[in-house]
Amino acid sequence: MWTQRYIALDKTELSIMIKKKYSIYLADDDDDDRDFFEEVVEQISSRITLRTFGNGIDLINGLNTTTKVPDCIFLDLDMPLMDGEECLHAIRNSRRLKKIPVVIYSTSIDITNAERLRDLGANLYLKKPNTFNGLKIAISNCLEHVKENPISRDNGTGFIVQL
User: Fold this and answer.
1) How far apart are CA 129 and CA 21, in angstroms?
2) Which terminus, N or C, of the chain has the lesser number of Cβ atoms within 10 Å?
3) pLDDT, tens digit, for every residue of 93-102?
4) How far is CA 67 from CA 6, 21, 63, 104, in A?
5) Which residues partner with 22 through β-bridges?
6) Whose CA is closest to 57, among 98, 94, 92, 86?
7) What distance in Å separates the CA atoms of residue 4 and residue 90, rounded to the nearest whole number?
8) Positive or negative, the Cα torsion across 20, 139, 102, 121?
């Protein structure tokens, strides 16, 4: 299995890492999960701007109407109207969007499904942590990974992030 466990970055280390404004899009149909994610991002760095969407169609519309694409997308799998896998297909099939790092953000891990999503172009697969600090560590490390490797996809080692 290719799971990576990460150590915590403190706020000083992450602020040094994020020297410019950094834009994240989150697509998740669960209001509580979106609010939780937003609270964590606010704690990580004031240089991060977050835009949230409640379903895949809104995400794709937002991506297609913005002049500047985000630096990273966190994408829930189980959403109504257009699920995460369909969004991933749309993103990777768009000349304008295909280089945006995409982190699959899900409550569970199915290895077969994770492998398929990696092959479809996901950069990382993050299992949603249950704690504030756990989510803070996980998001921080995902951002560090995509900042260092913005267009590469992990070949297996470290693709799944969980605490």
Assistant:
1) 25
2) N
3) 999 999 999 9
4) 34, 15, 8, 24
5) 48
6) 86
7) 27
8) positive
